[in-house]
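User: Hi! I'm a student and our assignment asks us to look at how structure tokens line up with a sequence. Could you show me two examples?

Assistant: Happy to help. In each example below, the sequence comes first and the structure tokens follow. Example one:
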Amino acid sequence: MVKQQMDPFYASVKKYFDGAAKHSGLHDGLLAQIWHCNAIYKIYFPITIGKDYKIIEAYRVQHSHHRTPSKGGIRFSNHVNQEEVMALATLMSFKCAVVDVPFGGAKGGIKINPWELSEEAKEKVTRRYTHELIKRDFIGPAIDVPAPDYGTGPKEMAWIYDTYRTFKGDDINAAGCVTGKPVSLYGIKGRTEATGRGVFYGIRELLEQEKDMQAIGLEPGLEGKSIVIQGLGNVGTHTATICQDEGGAKIIGISEVEGAIYNPDGIDIHKLLKHRKETGTILTFSGAKKKFKKKDRRKVMEFECDILIPAALENQITKDNAKNVKAKIIAEAANGPVTADAEKILLKKGIIVLPDFYLNAGGVTVSYFEWLKNLQHVRFGRMDKRFNERTYKGLVDLVEKNTGKTITKKQKEFLTKGGDEIDLVRSGLEETMIASFHQIRAIQKRKRSVKDLRTAAFVSAIQKMGSDYMQMGIFP
């Protein structure tokens, strides 16, 4: 009997896990429990598109129940298969653990090309998929909470919520069945930018480590660093704009479906996004000095730069092209963009790799905040914003009175502002990314055999999950 070959992405995640597991100090049986997916649901369901009948293939994988609910996005893609969804669900468990978000990992996938379907067809697919999950208890605010992923967004999440509410109308916490919803439909401010903002915070924190930067020949700080980004989807767009606007970084290369552009003097990301929205392409942008057609778009990963940010799909940097990568830092904004074999080559070259399941955890972190908001039935800041503003104003007035000096109205407004929902969400995300980075670095420093950030992050996640399982008494 011929053994079926493992999906390359799933195999790559397994290699990373195995490499870290030996440093965890956990028993092999417990490690096996942590690795295996707990529940896999494969679905085929029919829909009508115009006069045609289509059979849709879809999945929902719950990797771990060490914490509940399980959590993970739903992607729409022609490339969806069971092992890809298993790999993504597995990474979600480690992602939640490494940033201390109390969920188990899950993932969903529907094998369609969303850009070839009408809005009506996508809605049919989304609602029918949700119905299938409801029938098998694979969705619910205390069971499994989906979110957006590749090919999906707030609109699809709104359809999921509405479908769930139709069947579970007596659930007072129904809005918590899915996150990434529109703000007007029980979503949360800051969710759309969350993954990209988390990438920014993670990169910024790494660049503040003087010894690490000295080792790769960079000055500390993000200001002036050259960045190349592969993928201008939601994550890539927000990463680019925030790195440029708040970090002072210089975007010198961009790759998208239609091709890639390069300008060593810098590309104004806002002008580029406006141009692409108007024309549908980046290739006619006047601010580019070099342009690469569609077949050569992956050359963007070989450009000279300080930071390369793959923000598209998995398996983009492989053993075949890793030797050509010239970046000093690779920041994995996408899931699994660097294969295990490629990373060995990159590390030998002295390149620092910020691992995906830490770096792109901003989405699940803010999804956690949205879920909490839905369960609490109150928006962040509503209870204390005005109280804090009055308290701060009283303090400023007291200082002015005792010093005999005054400040401008604008300065006073800045010092006395209470936190809005977006302020609190960003603050919570920033704290999460900074604290998690230093937990990972602490393992790297404590365990001399752990040389890279990915292995350290895996060890951190595995040990936390192992502790949860042991406390549950899973091995009587």
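Example two works the same way, sequence first and then tokens:
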Amino acid sequence: MGDPVVHFEINGPDDELVAKFYSELFGWHTESMPEPPYTTIDTHGGAGINGGIAKADRPYSTIYVGSDDLQGRLDRAGALGASTTVPVTDIPNVGAFAQFADPDGNLIGLFKPGGGEQPGVSTGSNPPVTWFEIYGKEPEPLWQFYRELFGWTIKEQTGEGFVYGEVDTGAGQGINGGITANPMKQPGIAIWAESEDQQGYLDRAVELGGTAIMPPTEMSGGLKIAMFADPQGTFCGVYSYKQ
């Protein structure tokens, strides 16, 4: 069994702007916490995972992977070529977290819940976050890194100009995702919300100060995707899948 992806996070210099943008775009419910400063997100999407918004020097998104042994995962990540960016840190009444940079520089979080039941995604019809993507300079080395670190199963898909690793965490909870290279061959992480109204959300994102990156595009196997950048430049995708 692999480690699950249990939380997403959108970071940037203007956390209030980000919270307002996603609340107005997707209807996600946000709540600010004073200590430590943080904004929680309950998507009210009825599926997927919840997230948060944190203030940071630069805009980026990340995912948090659940584990009962945070220090062990940090040590193993270091042995595989990563570097610790945030040591194991307690969050009163919540649990503990840590963060590392993978060999390509992607910041990945680790989370261990504290005592008591953790709140899940509330019921509702908003777009849920049900997929993640990790981008690397070359995806193949990252496939092996995450296999060895988290025990993920990664299905390799290659073709002419196409290299994609479909991730099944094998955890039976959280969300699955992919590891690939974006056109710029630059590291990054994108969260993906699920909805069939991709054009509507793309148009609304632009109205709210975002930038359209990819129009709704039909892919193979019943997959349809679109992508935008929020006002701070963080990528977010909207997708639907019909078998």
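Here is something you could point out in your write-up. Residues 161 and 196 are 27 Å apart (CA to CA).
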